[in-house]
Amino acid sequence: MLKELGRASDALYSIHPDLDRDGWVKAGMGFNAAGGDFDTFDSWSAQAGNYNAADCRDTWRSFKPGRGVGAGSLFGMARDNGWTDGNTDPRPAPERTTRPVELPRKPAPGMGAADVWNRCEAVTNQHAYIVAKGAAGVPLDALRVVPMGDSLQIAGQAVAGFLMVPAYAPDGELQSAQFIPPPGTGKKVNLPGASMAGATFTVGPNDGPAHLCEGIGAAWAVWQATGHRAVVCFGWGNMRRVAETIYDNHANHWHRRPDETERQFKERARSETPRSENQVALLFGEITHMG
Prior knowledge:
Elements: H1 2-13, H2 21-33, H3 38-45, H4 53-62, H5 71-80, H6 113-119, E1 121-122, H7 128-132, E2 144-145, E3 153-154, E4 157-158, E5 163-168, E6 174-180, E7 189-190, E8 201-203, E9 210-213, H8 216-226, E10 229-232, H9 239-249, H10 262-271
Parallel strand pairs: 9-10
Antiparallel strand pairs: 1-2, 2-5, 3-4, 5-6, 6-7, 8-10
């Protein structure tokens, strides 16, 4: 079950959610049919520029198992977007003639990740979310809090007072952000129009054993327990992509065999990335061999 859920989440996250409505609904129905959960669908949808939280929930509730689109449609859409399902030879994406290629959307004024970051304030261990997680003493210098009175709204929520967790691309650039409310005051949301695909935030050191975690609360707990780096993946669906990036960026973890070409070496390293039910163990240390 965990293997199939991870596979469905990985497929969903390979599709950019800035689809037309029919495509978005089709992807959601396929994910639902594959056993997916609402929180993952919602987090994926929130990356779209036109995300609406209420519409997302109502649409999910309208999906009826066994009726309409099946799981195969999700996997087909994912393959059309270059998803390999663990294979080294992806099916080439078909040429699209009915819709023009869309350039990446520019964020609205003041809504870029750097814009929001620059107007946020330093966070203290008195923030209600940190207190609720028992995380006093965790590193806070790389986090921010949205100032009280700030006008920023996401998915209909005013996010003043929310904890801002930056989400970095593999090259270190600020890619997006997640906003976490004090307990009982709202819902966790991502910065609209800024994809979370492949993005991470690291708690603790930048090298040594790596523990992949869905959210920052789990990452704090892992760092407190082990002292090792804990990598926030911003959701289950992003974990496989992050794991592959970490392996690619640490090729010296693998020893190239004398009879291997460079391409064969890289393909073997990628193919040995954990992909079974044991992938759940990535949460707490399957990548601990890396140093």
